[in-house]
Write a structure and sequence with these properties.
Layout: H1 2-34, H2 40-47, E1 50-55, E2 58-63, H3 64-89, H4 96-120, H5 138-148, H6 154-178, H7 185-203, H8 210-224, H9 232-238, H10 249-265, H11 271-276, H12 278-294, H13 297-321, H14 328-333, H15 337-363, H16 375-384, H17 389-399, H18 403-431
Antiparallel strand pairs: 1-2
Helix pairs in contact: 1-5, 1-13, 3-6, 3-9, 3-13, 4-6, 4-15, 5-6, 5-18, 7-8, 8-9, 10-12, 15-16, 15-18, 16-18, 17-18
Length: about 425
């Protein structure tokens, strides 16, 4: 029963990522085309449209694109945080032997691309971009696996998913530690207080959403002024959300059966009696609350936030982040050391790092290849891990302040992600050919 439930959860996760990748592609293409048409000014004006809130007599304003990148993307990181916690406690990262291979593969797939990029960009602002080729876009990578269908071993899907989730965790740590401005201690203290209030609401099993929403917004707003990127708030909050039921199954059954028995004793239950008899009302309410306690909050939130983040938040991010205008300056400057560092890092550094660390891990006897997975399959998956896109674009906007350098980085990300995706697909198509028969 447990394995079926876990399998169902994984399949839902896989399908939502695969479907979301199609919408993401459409949004990115729309942005690129729009930014290179006669309506490009409208695109840039919309991106910089000021939207503000008034609080305590002060007005806080940001452009629409910044609200998406610093606000809505916090929900994306919240879902990432829930995925990480679920995998660590219940999934493929829940035991040392299960976690070792994807964790080590992810580490190798992050270190080598960063080293390759830094070897080509050792000085100046360009050196800040070393974190760009470290990331894997889980939606696109799993989307390509989905195209291959049943030919792909389940073990390979699980490996790539776990690798990408660990990759996301590393990217979040890199953003929090290295891509921050001056740190405001007072703002961090305020964020910690709000985080404590959120934790208290979780521990007390508070029923009112406002008791969670208020401190969550407080954490986000405090981090906005702290120097740590505000989207880290999503990860911190997610790690406090339980991914297991808050009550034991025995308590659940005892409460439910007790209330049902009580309802039988109070007389016939009808819609009319429920409205007039407080005893029946209280019994039904207790059944409702007990059932609510049995549903794991983290799993529930992850399930219901996947659709908004896959089909609204990430496409909006792509729409406002992928719009590179290909003017003469950009075209003449390409390729430069930034774009080459990203391309070489994602296309070559990712698969080499993943394969090297995977081989060393298996050779050391710390882990085994997943069931049904061969080294050539792992190589195909490692190529797909070179699809950076969402997280790479996100980090590029944190790494650079010069708009031309950001555009160069994005072009490098587009090319690298396209090449990695095509090479990974062809490799897997060839190595998995005839497997089903």
């Amino acid at each position: 029963m447990k394995s079926e439930s876990n399998s169902s959860l994984f399949e839902r996760f896989l399908h939502s990522q695969a479907a979301g990748s199609i919408v993401l592609i459409i949004a990115a293409l729309t942005a690129i085309i729009w930014a290179n048409t006669p309506w490009a000014k409208l695109y840039h004006d919309l991106s910089h449209l000021d939207i503000g809130v008034v609080f305590a007599g002060k007005t806080y304003r940001m452009g629409l694109a910044h609200w998406v990148k610093d606000g809505l993307m916090t929900l994306f990181f919240f879902v990432v945080g829930l995925e990480i916690k679920r995998e660590v406690l219940l999934g493929e990262l829940s035991s040392f032997r299960k976690a070792t291979l994807p964790v080590m593969a992810a580490v190798g797939g992050c270190i080598l691309p960063a080293v390759i990029y830094f070897s080509l960009n050792r000085t100046g602002q360009a050196a800040n971009g070393w974190g760009i080729p470290m990331a894997t876009d889980i939606a696109f990578a799993l989307g390509i696996l989905a195209i291959l269908g049943d030919l792909v071993p389940v073990g390979l899907k699980v490996f790539l998913t776990a690798l990408a989730i660990v990759d996301d965790l590393i990217a979040v740590l890199v953003i929090a530690i290295f891509y921050t401005s001056e740190i405001s201690i007072n703002a961090l203290i305020t964020a910690t207080i709000f985080l404590g209030l959120f934790f208290l609401a979780v521990r007390l099993n508070a029923r009112r959403p406002i008791l969670y929403l208020f401190p969550a917004i407080g954490v986000w707003a405090s981090l906005m002024f702290s120097g740590v990127h505000a989207t880290v708030a999503g990860i911190l909050i997610a790690l406090l959300v339980p991914v297991k039921s808050t009550i034991e199954p025995e308590i659940f059954f005892n409460n439910i059966w007790g209330q049902i028995k009580y309802l039988h004793e109070t007389g016939p239950l009808t819609r009319e009696s429920l409205a007039s008899d407080p005893r029946q009302w209280n019994a039904i309410e207790q059944i409702y609350l007990t059932t609510e306690d049995m549903i794991p909050p983290g799993i529930y939130l992850e399930k219901h936030f996947h659709a908004p983040q896959a089909f609204i938040i990430l496409p909006l991010f792509a729409l406002f982040a992928a719009g590179v205008t290909f003017n003469a300056e950009i075209i003449n400057a390409f390729p430069d050391s930034v774009s080459l560092g990203i391309i070489f890092g994602l296309v070559f550094g990712k698969p080499i790092g993943i394969m090297l660390f995977s081989f060393l891990t298996v050779a050391a006897g710390l882990a085994d290849l997943p069931t049904g997975v061969k080294w050539q399959h792992l190589f195909g998956a490692s190529l797909l891990a070179g699809i950076g896109f969402t997280m790479s674009i996100f980090i590029s906007e944190l790494a650079f302040s010069d708009s031309a350098m950001i555009d160069e980085a994005k072009i490098g990300i587009f090319i690298a992600s396209f090449v990695a995706g095509i090479c990974g697909f062809i490799t897997l198509k060839m190595t998995l050919r005839g497997k089903k028969g």
